[in-house]
Specification:
The protein has five helices and six strands, in the order αβαβαβαβαββ. The protein has a six-stranded mixed beta sheet. β3, α4 and β4 form a beta-alpha-beta unit. The radius of gyration is 14 Å and the shape is globular. About 35% of the residues are buried. The mean pLDDT is about 95.
Length: about 140
């Protein structure tokens, strides 16, 4: 344990966050996401929901304010009646920690999978909400 580091951030996840550079992306994946088959680097966070991890990560992790979109969400498949209310929580959290993040990018399901395969890492969570997958693009620490 360390002072100031949220307990939900495992040593493995901290290492990943520290290794990442400007423009690198990390995926916080819900429990239905094929994380193991997509990941270059897989971090397990079973039993944790995405909002708690997102809040902890954003307390340490700058988003890329130079990119058109520093946050991406898996878009709802056309015809699916699901309304992902979890997205409102994601917006609330990014507004708290990274108010300059701007609008979220909606990424078609299979395009999201392909982008996730290129991500620096995927964090597999126990999140049960549908369409709870989120991509974060790392920014820079500004003096």
């Amino acid at each position: 344990m360390l002072k100031g580091i949220p307990a939900i951030i495992s040593p493995e996840l901290m290492k990943i966050l520290m290794e990442m550079g400007h423009g690198d992306e990390i995926v916080l994946a819900d429990g239905n996401f094929p994380a193991a088959s997509c990941a270059q680097r897989l971090v397990r966070a079973d039993g944790h929901g995405v909002p708690a991890l997102l809040a902890a990560i954003l307390s340490l992790f700058p988003l890329d304010t130079y990119a058109e979109h520093s946050v991406g969400l898996m878009a709802v498949v056309p015809g699916d009646p699901v309304k992902p209310v979890i997205w409102d929580e994601y917006k609330r959290l990014t507004d708290i920690y990274e108010p300059e993040a701007g609008k979220f990018e909606l990424i078609e399901r299979f395009a999201f999978y392909e982008r996730a395969k290129q991500a620096y890492a995927i964090v597999a969570t126990g999140e049960t909400a549908q369409y709870a997958n989120i991509i974060l693009k790392k920014g820079v620490i500004k003096p």
